[in-house]
Records
---
Amino acid sequence: MSHTPDTTPFPALSAATAIAAPDLGSRAPVLARTVGLKQPAAQVASARLLATAHGVYEAQVNGLPVDESVLNPGWTVYESRLQVQEVDVTAQVREGTDEVALTALLGRGWWNGDFGFGEEKTNYGEDNSFLAALEITYEDGATQVVVTDESWTATASAITFATIYDGQHEDRRFAAGDPQPVVVAEIDRASLVEQTSPLITRHESRRPERIWTSPSGRTLLDFGQNLVGWLRFTVTGPEGTEITLRHAEVLEHEELGTRPLRTAKATDSLILAGDPDGEAFEPTFTFHGFRYAEVTGWPGELTADDIEAVVVHSDIERTGWFESSHAGVNQLISNSIWSQRGNFLAVPTDCPQRDERLGWTGDIAAYAATAAYQFDVNDFLHNWLLDLHAEASLPPLSFVPFVIPDILKFRRDEFGPFAGQEPKEMPTAIWGDASVWVAEALWTAYGDLDRLRAQYPGMVLHLESVERALSPSGLWDEGFQFGDWLDPDAPPERAADAKADKAVVATACLVRSARFAAETARLIGEADGAERWQALADRTLAAFTETYVGEDGIIHSDCATVYALAIAFDLLEPATREKSAARLAEVVEAAGYKVSTGFAGTPFVTWALSETGHVEHAYRLLLEEGCPSWLYPVSMGATTIWERWDSMLPDGSINPGEMTSFNHYALGAVADWIYQVVLGIRAAEPGYRRIRIQPTPGPGLDWAKGAYDSAAGRIEVSWSQSSADGGFRLEATIPDGVEADLVLPDGTTRTVTGGTHTL
């Protein structure tokens, strides 16, 4: 069978054919080829492997892993952006003598692992396939290329089942069987792109902190931290012994709390072959979100030295740190860090544990600024934004879908607002605004104009879809909206029933997005676009003001979210802004300083308070421990951010809502305010080419310190205040050659360049 001619940046793959295994039942195949080297292995100067798959793969050269990454090639918009991994395998090729042996273990992954959510799962295709080329260069300049083609063979591995939701099962008693010819498959060469997103890797391992027997007689393990990954161990036992591992984020009634997993089984198992030297198990074709595990069938006594949890996520580097005098705030920051780690796996997901794990656009729209402080997400989120535009451009769409990649497109007639109807244009605020807001967060953090230029088409696509959705009044008051999703006053089963009017939220968000699109257009030299989007912003703001804002500062639906958005997005005239800010403070105080916002308002409510002089209200809101609040989950022992303010109720039972996750970063977006306002590290210019250090102390914190490895270099800040005399001390370290404004709480400002400074 012929394949599409290679027109990608991968000439080594031009002669390669995508291959798949023949029917091996449910067992994962091992594809293999051994070829003779044209020269002795000692004469190999370099060797590189180019590889990708529909599914996930683990490649080896001469019995050695090609690298430490897992779950390659990750998850992208397969139709148009299938990433190709390029790995230096010189050392592995040199391990051979006169031959080189290539193998690839192939799994289902995101391609056809019954993904999506709900009872009926969806897949991109039926068959998993592998495409690769090994390019060897000898010291005399001669080259040799080994490609996937019909000469490869397939055998069955011990993996009898593996999906991301349900887990991995292995039976070591099964023999591989005789090699069988592979089957030619199809991978569209036009979809191949260079690997731009960080690879998925193991990052650390943790031993259980406690092992005990539950009331039902189950052996339970507590790893002390809600994490994402899998369990790893080596064990010796009789042939036929079956060890089963179940995973959960929380306990309920002293047993595993598995109801939030919905249909995901999150169960791994191993049947031993009886090898007296021991058998190693690491289920790398799945992943789980868990703190607790249940182990059955373990031969003998299970100890903490026998088993470990492996933490897995995309290889993003930690860049931000924070510590303060308040232990609860410190734990909140730790929870945000761990939620980002667990959910930045291939794509920025909503949750890592249940039958979902999708790239929900609204979550990352709310959280992108926080994410860019805590980790270097420049490559990770840029790649995702390219996926966003690619997915939104696929027919019949012409708007930003709810998830990227859009696995829901395969069952849109059954899901939510699409139920019972053909796909139609349906842009949404916040979720669709991710095309703009995530790009804005990256521009602020990294200042990369070339990448901003590449992200601009996604902004245009979103805004054009919104223009078509506006009513004649100029308001975004028609069509489906998520709105202030997960308002804590909404019933558990109706997450969209928020206090904030959805049209007020949507129209406010449009102004923000149109303004940044106009700024982007100016920056990249698109004068017509700048004029167009600025005009849209101005028209929308005028309609917003006329319809929703009273002269007394009262904004329609009169709740914290609408005031937070209007203030944070600079939608109000100065006199009105002051009145609206005072009303926001009243609303927050009337709620007893408990959180009353959902996805829309939560990232901005503390900003709106502190930037309008209501610092004490902002701090009291942050430090409240009653439910709902940011510190309520901390008081309940949370080690990650929860999806709901009350994912676990005060009596220790799990929220009865169908949608309950204990690892959902969106509501942790307050961390951005903590980093920029409490600690005081702000970008005065994109990429921190100029810096503003402006800590804003408040009641409840005596000191704070932290650091940020910015695009311009490392920034360090520490401050303390005396409750006795009100004295304030600030120390800041600025990267060499970078100018910074140091601003004290009384407004005193000093401009410095590089070095360490104390005020």
---
Amino acid sequence: MTLEIIEIEGKTFVPADQLPIPEWNSVLSERPQPILTLKDDDLFLLTDTLGNIGGSVGEDRSAGMGLFCKDTRFLSRLELQIEGRSPILLSSTADKGFILSVLCTNPHIDDRIKAESIGIKRELVLNGGLFEEIEISNYSTSAVTFELSLSFDADFIDLFEVRGFSREKRGRLLRLLPPQEEETKSWEEEFAEGVEETEKVDYEADFSPNPPPPAELILAYQGLDGALLEARIQFAHHQPDFFKGNTAIWQLHLESHETQTLGYRLQMLNNGRSASTVSAPSTLAQAKAAELMEEQTWRQQVTRIRSDKNTFNQIIERAEQDIYLLRQSFGKGKALSAGVPWFSTLFGRDSIIAASQVLMLDPQIARETLYILAHYQGKTDDEWRDEQPGKILHEIRFGEMARCQEIPHTPYYGTVDATPLWLMLYAEYFAWTADYETLENLWDNALAAMGWIDRNMKRTGYLSYFRKSSRGLDNQGWKDSGDCIVNRRGQLAHGDISLCEVQAYVYAAKVRLAQIARMKKRIDLADRWEEEARDLRVRFNRDFWMEDQDFCALALDGEGKPVDSITSNPGHCLNLGIFTPEKAYSVAERLRAPDMFNGWGIRTLSSLSPAYNPMGYHTGSVWPHDNAITAMGLRSLGLIDQALELAQGILDMTKRQPYHRPPELFCGFNRTDDNDPVQYPVACTPQAWATGSVFQLLHMMVNLVPDVPSNTLRIIDPALPETINYLSLQNLRVGPTLLDLEFERSGSTTACRVSKKRGNLRVIIEA
């Protein structure tokens, strides 16, 4: 057998499938639950509670754990074992978000080592790469000798494959050949002989009796696009004594109460350059210090929000931490990635809504989100990507499937609502900051976005969607699963779909942009947009209203007929002014009926619908962001008690979650006195607009209305729920002014006072 030899960067590789490489232990340990998550910029890591990733031998490669960078899995197995057996877990935490700490111990090993006499402490850190240090301590009264092993593997599969997409072809996995000794057969001859005699010749015997361990372990893959991807693992503190395949093995001897430290750094490379935007430092200590310093710098610049209740503070602190973690680099700026693991990238809708939710925390996120999305704004007509001039993207991906045009996410523009939402954020950010430079820099982008909206609306009179890309989404609103746009009989709607909330977004965009146009002396645009908004409002209240149900239709279908199911979507319209007052109050009341409100929150679909499924992604589940938006709408109608009740349900749910972290969604089963909210099995956590909901609900309570161009902040009838007596906002940035605000509840009244002000902003408190 002749092996194919591949020379890359002075290193010699062969295709992995041509080598007889043994595994140290082919039986993976049973995976503890739940999965732990780390995130750092464009990296994320999913492990079990031991810090292990099981996924190479005897394991379906679609299992979701691993180390991912820009939509590629660079590590699919990380298995720590002692004498070929899994350690026993004592405790583990990923509380910090970019650090994972594990304490474990040994099982009983023959008659040599008693159970629970060896202490094993693992610490994993993400910062431009993966770092791990392992401290092994002997707590027995005598010396012990044993083997400790770490098994690595990398399948380099695309995140879309992990999610279940199939591919006809893949690139090829590569394995690095050891350095060649002088006066020996060629490596090609040695490997050929080894392949022919795999049943009787062991891997080391093909080369030398005791091959020296390599300076680093390199796992590699050459993609269909020719890109060379590498996971380079460099060991620290104590080099492995030898390797079996991709398993590093240490033969350890520890005296009584002696501790030894092992470690490694894993770098991810794409054609010889760092695959991550962040450059990896040299050591774990440096990586941890860099992360902690960056987080501290960010925290000093954002609003600090605290209450008099410890549990509520834990929710707020977790939300602050997760917003920091979800910040991800795209070019020179950072926007919030949508969620870990499946949506750890830039999304139009998700990133915009989350940026709007956290304006009270950090307006800089909104600014950079606007610029990044403007950079990718549609420039041409491209059906494969559902792109049109002026349109804001839905999602961008960087993995092999995108690079090879197997999916249209380069970027993909199949979203109907991101464009009006971008315009809403553009106006909202200006109201918070009076950032005239950004207003001017992005004005042409705003005109292009409005131009796309107007061209689209000519077809049906409403902003609608219809899939053009063969690999695009059938549904292109925030409920984008394939089974969710149904009528009252549970039947799917067809044709051009005009969602109710999208028309409200368009209405709000035109009203808000008209105000900016008038300020810019573009009276022609201001008059036109105001007239179009008035016309849209009249038609919307006529065409979307279902008289027999006294409620708003989910959508209009391709024939202009109402999609007449009872859903949460009209809740998004409440805060935007498109409903007449009587219709708005009717929607608000209906959303709180038992078939919609389950005690934790409002369901996406009525439990009376034939299509209702409490475990359905958009057909009966409950989404925190959906409820936070509705709570803002209830507050805008003066329904403060109802808004606080809804907020309390979401906060009660969050208290019961791991790390007090709200999930992307949860199941729609009814709340009872003796049950917890039922988790949705594959919900993202952390997730941007779920995390942002914490700040949106806080905003609803304190009811800040900024108008920095007029040098004014109004605080209108603030109201804390009965579970909170005191709330403070420190370092609140409203334009160039920094404020410290304090809210205190007494009975049914909440008072506000300005405890500190640095700037000349006029603060008006209205009871």
---
Amino acid sequence: MTDIVTTADRRVKAPDLAGDKPLAIAVLAMGGQGGGVLADWIVAVAEENGWVAQSTSVPGVAQRTGATIYYIEAIPAREGHEPVLSLMPTPGDVDVVIAAELMEAGRSVLRGLVTPDRTILIASTHRSFAVIEKEKPGDGIGDPTVVAAATDFAARRTIAFDMETLAVKNGSVVSAALFGAVAASGVLPFPKEAFEATIRSGGKGVEPSLKAFNAAYERTRERPKDKLTATPPKRFDPLPEASGHPRLDALVRRIRQDFPAEAWPLLYAGAKKLTDFQDPAYAGEYLDRIAALHARDRAHGGAARDHAFTVQAAKYVAVAMAYDDVIRVADLKVRASRFARVRKEVGAKADQIVYTTEYMHPRMEEICGTLPKAWGEWIENRPALFARLDRLVNRGRRVRTGTLFWFAALYGVSALRSIRRKTLRHAREEAHREAWLARAVDTIAVNYDLAVEILNCRRLIKGYSDTHARGYSKFDRALSALPALTGREDGAAWMRRLRQAALLDEEGVALDGALKTVATL
């Protein structure tokens, strides 16, 4: 994630914090980030040091489509004078903006709350994805570098780094880290001890809050005049010399020996994923399949194209072979690592009991898919029986995996991985996968780039239940244009446009429009 550090102050006149104008502070935070607590701390530390302070709030929309804005005005008390304080921030007149998440910092710039002649921006650079980012079938994540670039010139001074991670490492929440950055910034002319005393006076979670506060305080003071930059991505070494698992190490040796270096990272990730999904033998079959595809790649000039066909096959064949079925879902829900992660996320102590409630809605299609192929087909071929059974199973359930009954039930389902390759779902996934790869192999001889795009279309299929069915439908509709595109020089570009259109909306309206355009070519 982008890591932004403090920028130098621009040489402009700072607000007169001791004059007649109150210090205006806007806090933008979402539910669970402690925005209200932070606002209360700021008011409390101001009042304890002889200032008059007032805070108001305007709640954001639920389900993470907007943050709550806490607005604070504070001014040194003057005997015989009662200040008049505003209830809402005015664009261009805010001295300090505190954003509990990177995109909220960007929104504060768009709202005009951050200005280069006045505002100090204090922000955490971590991301909490908005609903609009999550709901897109493709990658709807906003670009953090745009926000980084905007805040670099929009604010008089910027103090920003990953305060969320820092707070979590110290057992607290981001508000405590933000308070530490406020204290170190000097926007409130009070000693550090005054801020710490305010935290102690709260009486709850004092020690973790103080740890996060002090860590952020020191982090802010460490680099007071660094340029606003993004942290370069870490390099990833995809092929360790030894993992400690002989069968996985044998797969790694085969990857090194039989495949081009461009594909190593994805092949290693795919082998690990499929070993976890099924077993090392299944991962070995994956490498067998990629080896056959790589041979076709070499035969049609793949080396001159950085083996793009092999690289994309390494990625998407692994995805296709590790499909989400009922067995996989049950396996993930009963893993000890998942229980440990949940306990860590909720901050449970060693002597506390944590129950997790899963919301599950199985359909008869999933039940048949988990049965041996002949059994599943027998039920599906009898519509009346299928409908009666569907009425029994097709309803929402709240499954408490911390209870013996439901844990044992899900554990039993997860144990079905031993027969997974005999199930109806596996047979259908395998048939669909081989048909997809056959189309790519048939195309590579006449249009290499289009063959690569056929492989990329696999990203349209994901999840299970209704999500999986919609993905299959979009995949098949996109590839229905293949006969019209195979002989065209721009066939790959058009297939890419179809895939991108399929990712724009859930129903596939944009894809239908793109297909009509292709039909007129």
---
Amino acid sequence: MKQVFTNRLIVFLLGLFLVSCVDTEYDNPETATNAALPDDTATMTIADLKSLHTTAGHGDNDTTAIPENTTIVGQVISSDEEGNVYKELYIQDTTGGILIRIDSSPLYTQFKLGQEVAVICDELVLGSYGSNIQLGVPSLYEGSPAAGRIPSPIMKRYFFTGAEEELVTYTATVNEIQEDLDYYVGRRVMIENITVANSDKGKTFADAENESTQNRYLNDGSTDNDIILRTSGYSDFAGDTLPEGTGTLYGLVSRFRDDAQIYINTPSADLVDFTLSSNNDEDDEDEDNDNDEEEPTPSETVRQIKEAFEGTKYDDIAIEGWNNIVEEGTQGWFYNEYQSNGYANMTVFEQSEKRKVWLISPILDVTNAEFKIVSFDTRREFVDGATLKVMVSSDFNGTDAPSNASWTELNVPFSSDGTDFYGTWTNSGNIDLSSYGNVVVAFLYEGEDGVNDGGYSIDNFKFNAEEIISVDPSSYYALADGLSGYNLKSTLHNIISENYVNLGYSALWDAYTTTDDKYGEGKIVWDMYTDIPNPSNPSVPDGDQPGEHEFTQITDKDSGSGGTEEGQYYNREHSMPQSWFNSDEPMKSDIFHVIPADKKVNNTRSNNPYGEVTSGGTETVNGSILGYNADGQKVFEPIDEYKGDIARIYFYMATRYEDEISSWDQNSSEADYVFNGTTGQVFESGYLQMLLEWHEADPVSQKEIDRNEAIFLLQGNRNPYVDHPEFIDSIWK
């Protein structure tokens, strides 16, 4: 152990000895009589400690070292006795609060509510998750530096407890917390006159049956924006019903990005004085019963939907907040059922009429949603011309005709079968609504019997549902723990092939607005073939400046003509050319390797493999070059900044399609140069060595991390070599 750490420990023990002996044995906390810590124990405030991370400009994928001889002192404000806070300790001082990650449970027997705690920080680091700053040991999260849990056996190196005192609580309104989140995060607060939002009344704190963490929404009238009450599905009170009426909430303020979240330790102590509102009192029994429960207005928004369309077979769909509107014909969307599974159905098959029918969701509160994602399943049935459009509108008010609103059609994959039989259910993938604001989602069916025969079905409509996109990285790759070599690769193949959603080739244009968004504004395409990371790049010809060859999302996409010069259009570039796998799906549409690229440069590269040019060549504006390598093979060499990206894409393809890639070497001479006809090594030895060198020279970048997350939302799988670059060495070295 460092000498400085030992000296610090001596100072602690000496100071505490002068006051009283500190009981650091926690077997019998009821009899603990810890004395107060010396006044000069803390060498830094919690606010100053947290500022080290923010001042350094570090975020969720980096850590900040802490100076030697740093000690903070705070009051314990969290308890894991009822399981809502797990392996985490929240402490606060007068300047702020912080979360400390500890690999031990339970903690409430060791750290009492209100107890003083001194934390020696010398060997710890600061990290963050969702912008929430945390304290822990140096670790990795998805391959990036992170603050990990402090192991239980060495906890006593870092913690000294003092006296138990009255809990300090900060009175605040919902608006104040949301407006000054940096100040309140990590603190214990009291919010008065708070009530559960209408959309969550009568619900339980969380999903106890599936042990799923849930967000519930509350408000005190200080703002239109509700605050999130977040509860673990493993907590003892997950299945309890939320309180009715208005009362006072005591809770811990956390955050996920820009959203404030409140955690409570236990409902009995932290949700108090709730009283039923007057319109629910038994004294009002003589009032009109129809008014006992207020009907939602057309403009009311909802925070979460999980709609399975279960109802009486063949009845018209009638769901609170939804609109089932018949514009033409006599039949609205109706409930149907097959093999005990209910779903929404619309058809003109043998109905002798023309139908145009809308099924429209409630207004989705995208603005305040944690997961701004909608997902659903569709199925085609005997379709020969009938159509289904999925659209969103921000100005449909629920009372006027849909034709009076403006609509934007979403690019949704439908099953290619179902023309003369019941087709297969197809998932839409995760559709990001963040760019649309608060909207309704509409399913518009049009068909005519004898002309546009057939129907469509809809099921499992979800909005802001945590299970759509949430993934615990440790559990995602859990089956790969301890494996190496080709066994690891095969296991990763199974992991990333499960839940895969084939978006379809045409959907990639819209996907690029989030997966390859250069500046985070949904405007400019990030094209690795034309991007100039260094504006002083000597390869830039006179007159060409960075940004000149940037493409606007959607507007500048390839329209089928033009593109004889760089900078005119972008298109969909298969990093592994389609001829290598006979243009088969899902490889053709797998967005991990289908990247946006300048049309001219894409055509220049053609079907040639990537490689390192040693002679001849045609150079692009950013320095990429087509020429010949040392073997005399024509190759395309990207700039150094993106060679690692390309290598990890190729390792992904070798893993995702290991069950069929062994035959690709037979499809073209270029493919034969790259592949060796095996399912294990996959690549020719010389080519593999080049990919490994590219991977090592150009480590995982933030661009790749962001792209990996965005693709996961849409396609349902991940590139394991972006999350865990070390897997590459375990498999191929």
